[in-house]
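Sequence design from tokenized structure. All designs in this work follow the same two-part layout: the structure record, then the generated sequence. An example of the structure record is given first.
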């Protein structure tokens, strides 16, 4: 999740943006802002940088494997198509035995 210090910094900035007449409630506002921000971020489906980088690596390996498999399929399809062409060519090249 997000570092608690980040919540503290955001809450403090929010409290500092309040007009001077309202600053007497600054501590309470910081506490409420901190709680509100923490609850809001908790509802979001966030991941840590480490989790993101791990998934990025998994995706890169998966893409590489997919490209490799696509190439293998293309090679096999080419071989099958080439084999069918040869058989068709051989059949048309054979002389008729009825002559």
């Amino acid at each position: 999740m997000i570092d608690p210090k980040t919540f503290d910094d955001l809450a403090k900035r929010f409290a500092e943006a309040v007009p001077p007449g309202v600053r007497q409630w600054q501590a309470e506002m910081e506490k409420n802002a901190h709680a509100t921000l923490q609850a809001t971020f908790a509802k979001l489906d966030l991941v840590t940088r480490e989790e993101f980088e791990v998934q990025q690596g998994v995706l890169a390996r998966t893409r590489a494997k997919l490209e490799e498999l696509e190439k293998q399929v293309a090679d096999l399809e080419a071989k099958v198509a080439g084999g069918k062409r040869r058989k068709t060519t051989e059949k048309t090249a054979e002389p008729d035995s009825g002559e």
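The radius of gyration is 34 Å. We note this feature because it recurs in several other targets discussed in the main text.
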